[in-house]
What does this fold into?
Amino acid sequence: MSLFSPPRYQAAFRPYRRDRDGLLIRALTRVERWIKGGIFGCRMCGNCLLKQTAHICPMTCPKGLRNGLCGGATPEACEVDPSRPCTWHRIYERAQKRGWEDRLLEVNAPLDGDRVGRETWLNLYRVWRSRGKGPRLRDALFQRGRFKEEWDALFFHARQPDWWQGDSRYHPPAYEEPVSRLEEELRAGGFVVTGEIAPPLGPSPEVIRKKADLLRGAVVAANFTDNASASARMSSLASSKICLDVGLEPVMQLQARDRSRVVLESDAIGAAGLGIPNILCLTGDHHRFGPGPVTTPDQFDMDAIQLLWMLRRMRDEGRYLDGREIKAPPRFFLGAAASPFGALPEYEAIRAEKKVNAGAQFIQTQPVFDHDRFVDWLEALDKRDLLGKVHILAGLIPLKSARAAQFMADDVPGVVIPDEMVQRMTGAGDKESQQETGFVMALEILEKLKKTPGIAGTHIMAVHWESIVPRLVEEAGLRKAHPAPQV
Ligand code: SF4
It folds into this structure.
């Protein structure tokens, strides 16, 4: 049991090679494991972030997230295991109490497998020696300001390896001309509409072609989900390519779950090679939301923020994570998701800022049902000066049935539907009346969104009800998208 962290979700790490360390190092590792485990709940990831995370071990999070809470986090419980609190909520609370929120903005590296399970104290000493700048003991007595500066710099160097170089600054894209039609439309202003298509369960491209035909003319681009809810379908990459070939620009969703950093790099390069310009970076739903049988509960290799950081650097600096040069760097318009309704708006705003700093150029949100709470989130973003740096597309779901409304309200992480809306759906009568009520409610929300300052448009997620999108766009009086050229 630790002093601050929630209990470990999984056991402490062990090194994947035990032949490199001598007796002394192994003894030191054992002592560190015992002391830091007891005080901080440390899992010996070997890439220590305790100084950044208010001395709570982020590796006690079931997803192993190192850059903030996930979309399903709530103040009450963890979305993966509701019997435990959310680790990241604890971190935010403690950081807020101590005035350490700014420390949460640094983009932390994924784990370095070579360091996992091994001691960090000797490593810190090595970094101190190699820097040759201090901190020096005499400064601790006579120049406390300087000592603190050097102390922080030492830890920064230890946790930010050369292959990552994370920081807490905003990194605007290093190119001028828009790389996609979506980017062009967002830069031009106006109220932009994007849509969403769930890839089919089978291999037939016809399903996608038909849905793309429905949406073309109503939306600027269509998202393809990436095995959402940990449930297998046609890949987002293949679906995006089929859609592109029939003249509708895709937004390929790329999620970190189930992929190592190598596969993420490879898939992103593959997408660029196929002419898919928009990539929405996600951490991904935990396996426990899938239909089962559930895979082993291993933690994710990367999260959405690390993915954005990596892809932006591949594009703007032309390098793979391992340092190899990319001769013709890929061109991506990078997006992220946001969850305005899960945690407190100020916590969600910290995570949004991190995504924007890492490389997110547009954000698509969870569906808006509670407009007042959505505005609270926007205000929290505004306080962090984010609204001029990122295009925000407010999520919208036309509810197709009372059952769907109830399911989403009860079981979908990060979605909040006010009771009166669920009641309107349940009291609507037969199937057709429920659909019509869902449509009218979507129109009402859309009217409010159109007048909401700070947003660039809406992202309509009418999954399995794509046929409603053109009617919604038309009755809301939104400009129809021009068909994209056939490729
Ligand atoms: S809710 Fe999400 S961020 Fe919080 S501990 Fe669980 S998996 Fe981690």
Q: What stands out?
A: The beta strands are 192-197, 221-224, 249-255, 278-282, 333-338, 362-367, 391-396, 457-460. Residues 61-63, 65, 69-70, 72-73, 78-80, 86-88 surround iron/sulfur cluster (CB under 6 Å). The two ends are 59 Å apart (CA to CA).
